[in-house]
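Morning - flavin-adenine dinucleotide inputs below, output right after.
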Amino acid sequence: MKPFTFERATSPEQAVSAFAAQPHARFLAGGTNLVDLMKLGVETPEHLIDVSRLPLNDIEPTADGGLRVGANVRNSDLAAHTTVCRSYPALAQALLAGASGQLRNLATTGGNLLQRTRCPYFQDLSAPCNKREPGSGCSAREGVNRDMAVLGHSEHCVATHPSDMAVALAAYDAQLELLGPEGSRTVPAAEFHRLPEDTPQRDTVLRPGELISHVTLPPPPAGARAAYRKARDRASYAFALASAAAVLAVDGDGTVRHAALAFGGLAHRPWRARTAEQVLTGSRADAETFARAADAELAAARPLSDNAFKVPLARNLAVHTLTALTGDAPNRPAGT
Ligand SMILES: Cc1cc2nc3c(=O)[nH]c(=O)nc-3n(C[C@H](O)[C@H](O)[C@H](O)COP(=O)(O)OP(=O)(O)OC[C@H]3O[C@@H](n4cnc5c(N)ncnc54)[C@H](O)[C@@H]3O)c2cc1C
């Protein structure tokens, strides 16, 4: 591993100032992704600023009935929080679908959002990768691409974003609070991650040296039910081939009043399915509508040589997830 210097931040503002003074710095939270990438030589920071002890550990109700989550809240704690289980079940389910118990005990809300792609070529220093080394080429496009993107990819990058939690946050219309050298700003979770275009080295709209301080969830729509479903090669400890987070509110006459749908595992960012949502809203909440909505969204898919299976997989996940939300089953994460 390349040598680096280390400091422990004393406040969010001090962390941001320390970063500004060290252009090749990285914030360190749980370290479950950053340290792995440093060992591989993919990440080579000269300076680490440990933000894991900053007082960003609270989960607090907001005045409008939502929830504000500190960036250092561990994935396990967020998944087990009473309000999250009761009011944001798709978030709890997404968190519990990620990694392992040990990893979730260490992984933070901020770090989870900023974990990097699991594309094997990104992690392999001997392979060209535009995300790791801009201009070197994309090995995955014509290589082993079963796990790669089917939506929104570019000739420069076909990697997918790996976070489960981020997919649920996009569906819940969460907002990210960022603190940077020029002050604070708020970005919708659904617009935080980028498509690769010709700059795949940039995963997000985060500016250099900005710290994620909080994630705020608005109150869920009245009467809404929600769920997260993930398809993967193993029952645990595996990233999504495809996943779907859905938030659905249906009126008494069976008409969809509110629909939010986001896919994971299909693109360089959590894929908010706006086209499907337009089909759903105002339509009858039944399997025919759900299939029509999923098909409308996935018409934009451009599968690679080995991942055409992701399109029907995502379609079926969306239809099953939405259908389950119209049934009588309790809308709670498993184990709560
Ligand atoms: C074997 C394995 C399996 C996994 N499976 C899954 C899975 O199925 N689903 C899933 O979603 N995840 C999975 N993960 C990934 C795991 O969720 C992430 O590693 C973890 O969430 C990262 O959080 P962290 O706090 O450890 O981040 P770190 O590793 O500390 O940091 C990650 C990145 O975020 C930056 N960062 C951290 N905090 C902040 C902040 N507040 N502001 C700005 N930048 C910040 C760091 O600089 C770094 O670039 C898996 C990981 C492993 C090792």
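Note: The longest helix spans residues 310-325.

O.
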